[in-house]
Write a sequence for this structure.
C-alpha cells in the first residue's frame, strides 16, 4: 500500500511540475460570440541594457476563436517579450492603450 501511494504521488508531481516551462502565448474566449484576435510583440532588452527597440515589433493575426475555445497563438517566451493584443467580436473590443498599425488581411506575420 505504501509503495502504491509513493508511486501515485510521484506521478502526480510529474504531471503538475513539468520538466520544461511553457512559454507559449495562449488566449481563451470566455464569451458567447466568435472573437477575432491579433497580437504584436517585441523582445525585451536584457536588464541594464537597451537596444532602443531596434529589434522591431512583430505582428501576427488574425486568429478566430470560437466561444469557449482556447488556442496557442504563438511560441514566443512571454517572459522575454512585451506583448500587445486586440480582440473584437459582435461590437465588443478588448484592447490596451498601445497604438499599432495592423494589416486587415486574414492571416499575416510582419516585422517592422
Amino acid at each position: 500500500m505504501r509503495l502504491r501511494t509513493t508511486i501515485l504521488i510521484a506521478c502526480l508531481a510529474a504531471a503538475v511540475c513539468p520538466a520544461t516551462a511553457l512559454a507559449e502565448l495562449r488566449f481563451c474566449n470566455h464569451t458567447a460570440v466568435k472573437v477575432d484576435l491579433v497580437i504584436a510583440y517585441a523582445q525585451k532588452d536584457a536588464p541594464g541594457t537597451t537596444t532602443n527597440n531596434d529589434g522591431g515589433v512583430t505582428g501576427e493575426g488574425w486568429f478566430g476563436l470560437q466561444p469557449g475555445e482556447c488556442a496557442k497563438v504563438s511560441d514566443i517566451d512571454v517572459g522575454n517579450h512585451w506583448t500587445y493584443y486586440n480582440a473584437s467580436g459582435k461590437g465588443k473590443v478588448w484592447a490596451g492603450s498601445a497604438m499599432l498599425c495592423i494589416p486587415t488581411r486574414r492571416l499575416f506575420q510582419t516585422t517592422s
Summary: Strands lie at 25-28, 35-43, 58-65, 70-74, 81-89, 92-95, 108-111. Confidence is low (pLDDT under 50) at residues 1-20.
